[in-house]
Structure formats: C-alpha cells, structure tokens
Amino acid sequence: MAQPSASTAGPSGEAQRPSSGGQQPSTGVRQPSAGHDAATDPTAKKPERPAPTSASNRCTADSMSLRLGTADAGAGNIRFPLVFTNHGKKTCTLSGYPGVSLISRDGSTVGRPATREGGAGKAVTLKPGQSAHALLHTLNEGVNDTACWSGAQIVYVYPPGSKESMTTHSGKLRVCGGRFTVTSVEAGSLG
C-alpha cells in the first residue's frame, strides 16, 4: 500500500493538499455548418455533453479539503461524517463512494479498508465553499464479541473517482465489532 501523501493543516485544522494550479482543457462542441439543420438531418452530429462526473468537472483532491466530523452515536452504532469541501475556484461534482483506510503513526495499515454500505446515491454538485459528506460506520465497543482495532492516527481517503489521496486526523474514530463501512457521498457537511 502506498504511504499517505503529505498534507498541511488549514486554519480550522482541516487537512489540505497543495494546489497544482493546473486546469483541464475545455472540450469544444461541434457546430453544424451554415445551411445545415441539425434538428431535421438524422446524419447530423448532436452536441456532446460531458457526463455528470466527467474528468473535466469531477472534484479533485487538490481542490478540496477533508475533515472528520463529530461522531453521532446511538443504539450501539457510531457514525462519523467524512466531510469534503470544495476550495477550488470552479463548481465540481462528487459521485459514489470514497475509498477509506486507517493508518497508524508508523504508516502501517490498521484493519481492513472500509466496505460500501447502502446505495450508490446521486451526484453531488459543489460550488466553491460547499461541502459533501460520506458516513463512516462502526459499532460501540462491547456490542459484540469482535475486538476493537488498534488505534489509528490517520484516515487515508481516495475521493470518489479519484486516484489522488487525501488524509485527515482520525480523532476519536476507533473501529469496533468488526464493522467499518462507508456510504456514498451526500450534500452537506453534518458536523
């Protein structure tokens, strides 16, 4: 497994990645020539539109910050919001599940990566400054006979559809009961 990439803490303690400053080239739309009616000509090409999470509008690790929100505990379950905030200059989209692992202080993996929980959800569009979240789910200690994992220091995350990772501090996250799942992203920050 690759080692967590370096990140710096922002003013509110959020983990941030340095911006690459690079921009994706825009894709031009082919226009019909003069005297050519695209609406009535079946051979005419229709303008191409990018998919909702195409590479040109997908949120990237270098344009977002990541933080672990406050735990919500009840009925033996604990859920932590994993919050992605768009700090880029353009609107972007997140869709699907993030990849999540826990890392110890020495860089070794703690337990297994989070498994997916629930449906794939819908694409979430984030204007600059807006947030989306996925929920990390575990159990309270003692709910079943499965021991808790050793403490992790870092939450290592691949945003949905990304090959670039992000990290944040694990805070009070401790996986117990053999349950470590992640939901797909939803709009809002939850804590």
Provide structural commentary.
The chain has 191 residues and is mostly beta strands. It contains no helices and 15 strands. Strands 1, 2, 3, 4, 5, 9, 11, 14 and 15 form a 9-stranded mixed beta sheet that branches. Strands 8-7-12-13 form a 4-stranded antiparallel beta sheet, with no helix packed on it. A hairpin with a 2-residue loop joins strand 4 and strand 5. It is globular, with a radius of gyration of 20 Å. It starts with 7 loop residues before the first strand and ends with a strand.
Keywords:
single chain; mainly beta; four-stranded antiparallel sheet; 15 strands; globular
- Outline the low-pLDDT stretches: 1-52
Given the helix and strand composition, which structural class is it? Answer: mainly beta
User: Using DSSP, what is the number of strands?
Assistant: 15
Overall geometry comes to: globular
Mean pLDDT: 80
Question: What is the compact description of this entry?
Answer:
0% of the residues lie in helices and 31% in strands.
Give the SSE layout.
Blueprint lengths: L7 E2 L5 E2 L47 E5 L3 E3 L2 E10 L5 E3 L4 E5 L5 E2 L4 E2 L7 E3 L4 E9 L14 E5 L7 E4 L11 E2 L3 E2 L4
Parallel strand pairs: 9-14
Antiparallel strand pairs: 1-2, 2-3, 3-5, 4-5, 5-11, 6-10, 7-8, 7-12, 11-14, 11-15, 12-13
